Structures are given as C-alpha cells and as structure tokens.
Amino acid sequence: MIVCDNCWAGSVYQWIERPYNSPFISIGFYGDCYIKLLSNFDYYMALPLKFITKSKYKNREITYPLALLGDIELHFTHYKTEEEANTKWTRRTARMLEETNRDNYIFMISDAWYATEQNFKDFEALPLKNKISFSIHEYKHLNLKNHYQVLEIDKNFKDRVPNGVKLFKINFIYMNLYKWIKECLS
Predict the structure, then answer these.
(1) End-to-end CA distance of the chain
(2) Per-residue pLDDT tens for 20-58?
(3) Counting CB atoms within 10 angstroms of each CB, which of 61, 77, 118, 163 has the fewest?
(4) Which helix (H) or strand (E) holds 8?
C-alpha cells in the first residue's frame, strides 16, 4: 500500500506490475492537508468524499474533480468526472484498508504540491515505519531518514520537484527503489 501526496504511487504500481491497492493514485495533496491526513489517518480514511468546486488554495486552476475528506482537499488531477473519482477512490480505499498493519504501508511526501519545511518536519515526526521524501531542499538538519534531494526541478516553478510521474522516472538517479521497497516490506 502506497500513500503519497502526488502521482508517484501510480507510477510505482505500474512499474512493479501490481494492481492499484491504494486510493492514492492520480491525486494531489497540498502539504498541510497531507500532513493532517497522515496525522489522523484512520479517521480521515473512514470519511466519505464530498465534491466541491472551489479550492482554498488560490494558486491552482481547478479543471478536474476536487473533493473534501472532512477538511482535507483531494485534487483528482487525472480524473475526468466526480463519478469516476468517487468510484475508484471507494474501491481502492476498501482494498487498501484490508491491510490493517500500517508497517506494510509506504508513505511518501514531496514538495511537488508545495509541502513546506514544516510539513517535512511533521512528516518525519509521524510514527510511521516506511517513509520516503523528495524535495529540492536537502533538509539535513531535519534528520529525515530516507530523504532525497532532487536536483532536477520543475522547469515551470523552480521551487519544487517535478510532478509525480516525472519524479518516479528520475528517482532512480537517487536510489534503488526496488531494493528499498523490498527492505521496507520484509
């Protein structure tokens, strides 16, 4: 089960040729929402989606389904309709929650969706076993165990890593992802 704040998870599942057993496919989360979700994971994952038309984040044009889980925004960036987003979210959430041991989950954060230094600090403090992070910043002072500074930035923004699909493609420059996943889940 991969829980992440951008499209990286979908690329990993495709690469290892596994079914999507997580709803965190083709979805984006801003840093504060993502940390809030992870901080009270079981509570939020039990909530139904409520679709909305306006984001509280002003720097993004909404051209896709947007939903709330309580007070957390989910940006279904690669979905065409609310019905498609809801159907896939519901089915994949049920599949993911069959695994109750969170030690069998992988949690990823990046600054692709504007996660801040504080978000990375909060992420590291969470009592989650298998965590990985990617940022344009090194963050040595935060003692992030599996943190990778990405030197290739988003050419359009210059202040964050590329989107999840591109981030997946370049993460092999920085790490042996297959080995890391295998070690996490052994």
Answers:
(1) 14
(2) 889 998 899 999 999 999 999 999 999 999 999 999 998
(3) 61
(4) helix 8-15
